[in-house]
User: What shape does this take?
Amino acid sequence: GALIADVRIGKFLTILILSLVYLCGNAVMALTSIGAWFPASVSTESGVTSYQPMVWGPLLGLHLIALGTGGIKPCVSSFGGDQFLKSESARLQRYSSMFYFSINS
Assistant: This one.
């Protein structure tokens, strides 16, 4: 995410695009993890449909979430760092510690 933001399209557009990727990943996870929407098999003998979640949906969703998160985190953290002057290094260090504690816990 930081490489894309610095070299190609900037922080704002990187956050926007990768937030949409993250959003799509969450939607794919939510929609495909419910087995009743995507029947895996139909038993013809008894006429009962077996509703089991597909494996591809949650895996695709997790990959999209990982891609979105990996692109968003470095750009968002730099926004906070941009708010401090060079003379405020103690406040910047405190901000960074609190930011990474909250975003990773």
